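Order emerges. As here.
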Amino acid sequence: MNDALKALREKIDTLDDQILDLLNERAKVVLDVGKTKQGSKSAYYVPSREQAIYERLRQHNPGPFPSDAIQRVFREIISASLALEQPMKVAFLGPQATFTHVAAMQQFGLSAQLVPQKSISAVFDEVARGRANYGVVPVENSNEGVVTHTLDMFMESGLKIYAEILQEISHDLLSLSARMSDIERVYSHPQALAQCRKWLEENLPDVPLIDVASTAAAAQLAAGDRSAAAIASAAAGAQYDLRQVKANIADNPSNFTRFLVISNQIPAPGGHDKTSILFLIKDEPGILLRMLEPFSKRSINLSKIESRPLKKRAWEYIFFLDIEGHIETPAVRDAVDELGDYCQFIKVLGSYPRAV
């Protein structure tokens, strides 16, 4: 080793030691924050605070450290810090290596205790019974639309939306051999197969497509069968030692899924919030137009409206609405109160930081 390289490596070691010292100093402050929160009964996990940290650091980053890596690095620092304050248990729609698992890791980091559940209702139940602090469930995909089971659960549950996660979905074709010629069957979740339908028809037209419960289950099956392939995430491929046959085979390259973090609480306003409500309107002429007027006259943007049949009464519908702003802001509160005049039933599902 030449002297110049040795000197540079010694400089890196010195900087690493300084980083370690600063991490421990930060951890001590975090513990003090935890003690202060205990006295005031404040929430120890505040997603809007995390977003503000990431954004501030990105804006102040002079380089050459890449700005898109800042959130990944500090997510793990914050995750480890939260674990010092209080062990955090997060239920998610499993199994491991599904896109929901990846979303949970993206939101909470690797220091959280992430616990897979077999169904969306089981995630809600774990949080409602206090066996998990938070839950992560999918709610809609940019190509396939809403996850109706999640919406239905909010009709029955008293849980609130605490945060949202927006994740880009990349479907990879994975197998043990990585050779297209070896593939005699393809496993995946029905939604993933639907999102890759055109590519499969063009490249594997005679290969049977087999529905399974999750993309992770598909990867597990492919790991035990050299003649099979799975459509799944890169994380599933890594977990089950599969090789990439073809990356990102979805017919639409712009493919995002929105996930919700559920909790027993509503976070305080953070400045860039969204409020979700559900309501049942009275059956009157012009009611659909009138239900939008409280928001229009206050210049409040509605980012989503979705309807679901009311299961207990035929031909009646319950509506889900996403509103920009926090329920504690006067304009949003007044608009929701006015909407309530036209409703048989109205429920605020949560106010939470908008995903960026």
About this structure: The mean pLDDT is 88. The two ends are 45 Å apart (CA to CA). The chain has four domains: 3-84, 87-169+256-262, 172-246, 267-353. The first helix runs from residue 3 to 40.
